[in-house]
Amino acid sequence: MNAVLQNNAATAMTLEGVSKLYGPVKALDNVSFELRKGEFLTMLGPSGSGKTTSLRAIAGFIQPTAGRLLIDGRDMTGVPPQKRNIGMMFQDYALFPHMTVLENIGYPLETRGIKRAEREKRGMEMLEIVGLAHCATRYPKEMSGGQQQRVALARALVFKPDIVLLDEPMAALDKKLRGQMQIEIMHITRQVGATVVSVTHDQEEALVMSDRIAIFKDGRLEQIGSPHELYQQPRSEFVADFIGEANLLHGKTRVMPDGVVVEGDGWNVSLPKDDPQGQALTATNTACVVLRPERIRAVAAGSPGGNAGEGVIEDKIYLGVEYRLVVRMNDGGKVNIRSRDVAAIAGMKAGDRIGMAWAPEDIVIIGA
Ligand SMILES: Nc1ncnc2c1ncn2[C@@H]1O[C@H](COP(=O)(O)OP(=O)(O)OP(=O)(O)O)[C@@H](O)[C@H]1O
Fold this sequence. Notes:
Number of domains: 2
Helix content: 25-40%
Number of strands: 20
CATH superfamily of the largest domain: P-loop containing nucleotide triphosphate hydrolases
Largest sheet: 10 strands, antiparallel
Bound molecules: adenosine-5'-triphosphate
Number of helices: 10
């Protein structure tokens, strides 16, 4: 029996090699991952990377060209959307304007044949959870954007779906409200134990809300992991650049008796040979080094040692909480530094030469 079909209680959904072709366009290219019960997973990626196509395949609005999708161990091939126990919140909320808030929330229960008294009871319970019990008899147009969003969320959760899909949930909100609603939606979905798949192209939203993030690129799943894993151990330059801010330095590798060095013009990284990252480099000639801006120490120029670099300050920007420096390296590449070390930086100015230092443990190497 296929391992995936063994009805693992912790698995809510499995995608097995799912592809979707539109003529020559591979909207999805052999995507496989598992969603755990109670998990908040965000699909993140640039425009056209396949996020919406994945969401629509899960909802059943489109059928994969190849591969399978299992929900709770059950193959969904040929199962229409209304036969999948899935809740959805769309970016425009799609509330029914002629129904009150309570009627809107009760609607999915009505379509499932649940009687009015029970609908109202469960609808009011959901309204309590989303903090809108006082708005039950209002109409959607009498609510603010944030309130409408919470009604839409309550409607997506009220029938205890196996999975809740959120399609760009913050798209209609202004920036200030977004931050607040990210936290609120995260709390509400955790409180009711919902299993959530959300789509966004806002990396901050993904970092704030998700247990795990699936990063899409050109229809492929580039990497999936917790926000921490993706930030600390990106497996590609794309992921390193997409999650947080990254300096990507391309250099040549050199195997030394006691370690491995990656170096470019005016900078070097040295890793001990017993370090797994160092070991992987013994077989390659070139490598990409990921250096996070907040991990670089600004030091005086002129004393470069190991794990260090030098360049010329192009911009120095004071942001209150930190300084940002843009440094031009000898090879023409730019390095961004974020630092709160006022003592080290206050006296530096654009045009000065600057030294940079980093610790081997702060470095991520992307293979050759
Ligand atoms: N119905 C369709 N017909 C033809 N091509 C499509 C169709 N739907 C999607 N595509 C193509 O498939 C690819 C993936 O699209 P998809 O909508 O999944 O991307 P996305 O990551 O959600 O992007 P966005 O962030 O812009 O919504 C794109 O190249 C898109 O043009």
